[in-house]
Amino acid sequence: xxxxxxxxxxxMDFEVPADAWHVWVGVTxxxxxxxxxxxxxxxxxPPDAGRAAGALDRVAAAEYDAAVTLEHDxxxxxxxxxxxxxxxxxxxxxxxxxxxPVMPIDTLDLTAAERTVLDGxxxxxxxxxxxLERRLADAATTLDTETGEWRPTxxxxxxxxxxxxxxxxxxxxx
Length: 174
Prior knowledge:
The radius of gyration is 31 Å and the shape is rod-shaped. The chain has one domain. It is built from four helices and eight strands. It has 174 residues and is α+β, with helices and mostly antiparallel strands.
């Protein structure tokens, strides 16, 4: 009779190469780095200052009484005579204005009554009174050197083109 006998011999190497722990430390560090990058990525894009600059330029270039209200997702806005910058948690975006000048009304030292009147002008509810026109004309003389400050915003940018001392100007409220 034929007898079949089979023996299996397992040869396993239980020794780990000397540099294996370096590999595991490296993999761990790379994994932690990638996780940190993923967590640090913003959940939203930065605000679109180019869109806001385009809206302000359209108002400034219009041949008629033009106004715009632009909804945005910026937390703070900085408006200068020839530029606009917007920022939120995701970053900051800047854009240049082609037409101008642009007068940020938040930089003006206005009383509460004057601010209410100017809000009505921006809304198109009333014309620009002569007293406010003189104040804007005086403020326009220092406009070219005004750098603008970061102002908290309420989620909408409002602008209206007005004539001040024979010069077209865009009033902006953030």
